[in-house]
Design brief:
alpha/beta; Alpha-D-Glucose-1,6-Bisphosphate, Chain A, domain 3; 3 domains; 8-stranded antiparallel sheet
């Protein structure tokens, strides 16, 4: 049998089991057009649980997000819960969704599969920000949660994020256990589905009322350290065509911030994301409308959520009057320092970040007598590790962050919370204003005391099966042929998180974190380069960071500019090495 014949058989078999007429027709159209390259990509494998669930382009086939994939995932989740959580049928599963294409259908299918398995689906009607879903899982004592979202991915994506009963995203062994349960599920057409009207009558579909939105808002408002101070700030806010607007704006209003200007073109959910190429605040151009409105209103602060409101981007006005985008690391250092210094005294305060985020928060924690921990990339690791630390040594999480604009304040939400972080940043800015300074001024105070750390992330999008092969080839090339120098800088140590080893001066020691496809190089002078494939997008990511020491009497902007120039040189030098190992240009 030829490869093409085998592919046609796969397409026909999948189509026969696909419960969705739209995706069945889509696959048949591709067959009729003999678009075998597209079909090969759609059938190159199956979407697998990555960063706490599934994420992919919406379309027909096992390597896409569609109703067949969602029903099989939900059946696997139901089976795993019934096998491992004795009271799952009593506690139920929270089911929520964002405003993306097919989110409503995917959420309804999830609820119908769960209800047919005898597990109540606790459904929040309408659109739900991701942090609210995480909050609801823990607040309601549910056995798990499903959030249908693709977060900040391009419009053609959707996803299926799974939370465990502790309110955190799933980690081993549950991710592997659910994946194995999904693999045992039969064809999607054969999966039992409950009639949702009948399920509601029998208590297997229950609506989550708006009073729980209020419980979340009250929790967010309670995280403020200086309520009422500096609330005459002028703030621009955007939900970036996503679902965070109502709760974020209500939180700011209740906190007393009366000069908040939403970006009107991006205020309402729109799955087409018409004003941005990618609905990610980190992407070039995504903040253009926010910047323009901030200049018209002379705003002091710009706060931007991504479409599911689990991330936060911040622009602040410098003493020069110019707006500057803060990096995720800078926001993390600002909030971490603020919460440690201005927050209530704790016996064992803990701050956390990830291996690709700035270590400056660790230096601050050490100086202030706080506990500090690092995890693998992804908030699922931060949340679950903070719970482990609380049980093991009584550590109380004050703040956690990752450089990709993810932050959580305290333990209200066991995941990234862009709404809570937005209010925390507004609280910090108001406090700074009451002291006669600004967010930028406060950051300079921290940097004068702890040094200037400059950082940058560079990512390359490599879609499809061929892209995945290229990413794997680049990572393997760096493992087999590690550089001894990056430009003029000597490599002093190498951490291979897949092999779980650290090598320095010819000696190799074990790493304690779980295995992950990440490589980090420590360079002379304290610089660091880290590379890894994204867990949620078809990208390979490179992270560059170095510390810059202020000279006697030197101002922070001058030192930062010098550091950024050195960082740009480091980036160029390393990407030259990456290109030699198969990294495509561009």
């Amino acid at each position: 049998m030829t490869d093409r014949s085998r592919l046609i058989q796969q397409v026909d078999a999948w189509s026969a089991a696909d419960p969705d007429e739209t995706t069945r027709a889509e696959l048949q159209q591709l067959l009729a057009a003999e678009d075998f390259s597209e079909l090969e990509d759609r059938f190159a494998g199956t979407l697998e649980f990555g960063t706490a669930g599934l994420r992919g382009v919406v379309g027909g086939g096992p390597n896409r997000m569609n109703r067949a994939v969602v029903r099989r995932a939900s059946a696997g989740l139901a089976g795993y819960l019934l096998a491992t959580v004795p009271d799952a049928a009593r506690r139920g599963v929270v089911v929520a969704r964002d405003g993306r294409r097919m989110s409503k259908e995917f959420a309804e299918d999830t609820a119908a599969v769960l209800a047919a398995a005898g597990i109540p689906a606790l459904v929040r009607p309408g659109f739900t920000p991701t942090p609210l879903c995480a909050f609801l899982v823990e607040h309601l004592g549910a056995s798990a949660g499903v959030m249908v979202t693709a977060s900040h991915n391009p419009p053609e994506y959707n996803g299926y994020k799974v939370y465990w009963g502790n309110g955190a995203q799933i980690v081993p062994p549950h991710d592997g256990g659910i994946a194995a349960a999904i693999a045992r599920v039969g064809p999607a057409r054969e999966i039992p589905l409950a009639d949702l009207t009948d399920a509601r009558v029998h208590g297997l579909l229950r609506d989550i009322g708006p009073e729980l939105d209020q419980a979340y808002l009250e929790g967010v408002l309670a995280l403020r350290l200086h309520p009422g101070e500096g609330t005459d700030l002028t703030v621009v806010y955007t939900p970036m065509h996503g679902v965070g607007g109502p709760l974020a704006l209500e939180a700011l209003r209740r906190a007393g911030f009366g000069r908040v200007h939403p970006v009107p073109e991006q205020l309402h959910p729109d799955p087409a994301f018409p004003t941005v190429r990618f609905p990610n605040p980190e992407e070039p151009g995504a903040m253009d409308l926010s910047r323009a409105l901030a200049e018209r209103t002379r705003a002091d602060l710009v706060l931007a959520n991504d479409p599911d409101a689990d991330r936060l981007a911040v622009l602040t006005r410098e003493t020069s009057g110019l707006l500057r985008a803060l990096t995720g690391n800078e926001v993390g250092v600002l909030l971490g320092h603020y919460l440690l210094v201005q927050g209530p005294r704790r016996e064992r305060p803990l701050v956390m970040t990830t291996i690709v985020s700035s270590p400056q928060l660790g230096a601050i924690a050490q100086r202030l007598g706080a506990l500090y921990d690092e995890t693998l990339t992804g908030f699922k690791w931060i949340a679950n590790r903070s719970l482990e630390r609380a049980a093991k040594d009584g550590a109380g999480l004050v703040f956690g962050f990752e450089e990709a604009l993810g932050y959580t304040v305290g333990t209200l939400v066991r995941d990234k919370d862009g709404i809570g972080a937005a209010l925390a940043m507004a609280d910090l800015a108001g406090w700074a204003r009451a002291r006669g300074t600004t967010v930028a001024g406060y950051l300079e105070e921290i940097q004068r005391e702890f040094g200037v750390y400059v950082s940058k992330q560079r990512s390359f999008t490599l879609p499809g099966a061929s892209g995945a092969e290229t990413i794997a080839r680049v990572m393997e090339a760096f493992r087999k042929d590690p550089p001894s120098r990056v430009g003029s800088r000597t490599v002093e140590w190498v951490k291979d998180y897949k092999a779980r080893t650290r090598t320095a001066q010819g000696r190799t020691e074990p790493l304690t974190l779980p295995a992950s496809n990440v490589i980090a190089y420590g360079l002379a002078g304290g610089a660091r380069v880290t590379l890894r494939p994204s867990g949620t997008e078809p990208k390979i990511k490179y992270y560059f960071e170095l510390p810059e020491t202020l000279a006697a009497g030197e101002d922070v902007p001058t030192a930062r500019t010098r550091g950024e120039e050195r960082l740009a040189e480091l980036e160029r030098d390393f990407l030259t090495l990456a290109t030699a190992r198969g990294q495509p240009d561009g």
